[in-house]
Amino acid sequence: MLLDHHQFRQRHIGPNRQEQQEMLDYVGAESLADLMEKALPEAIHYRGGSTLPAATQRG
Asked: Which pLDDT value is given to residue 48?
């Protein structure tokens, strides 16, 4: 078994909203979208829409 397996869920869920906001404040970004704009080089930004079909509901 994994050591500290009881912490697995928390490690893989990621930060909660408050933690996200604290990180954004620290790096000077207003939102996750703003962070992506600032962090990604222009050469790899994709500005088009998705070509995936719309999601369907399973009943």
From this structure: 83
Domain count, the chain: 1
Domain of residue 24, residue span: 10-39
Give the pLDDT confidence score for residue 12 in this predicted structure. Answer: 75
The answer to whether the beta carbons of residues 48 and 40 sit under 8 Å apart is: no
CB 24 within 8 A of CB 31: yes
Tell whether 56 is covered by a domain: no
Task: Tell me whether residue 49 is in a domain.
Answer: no
CA–CA distance, 48 with 52 (Å, rounded to integer): 12
pLDDT by residue (tens digit) across 15-52?
A: 889 999 999 999 999 999 999 999 999 888 888 888 88
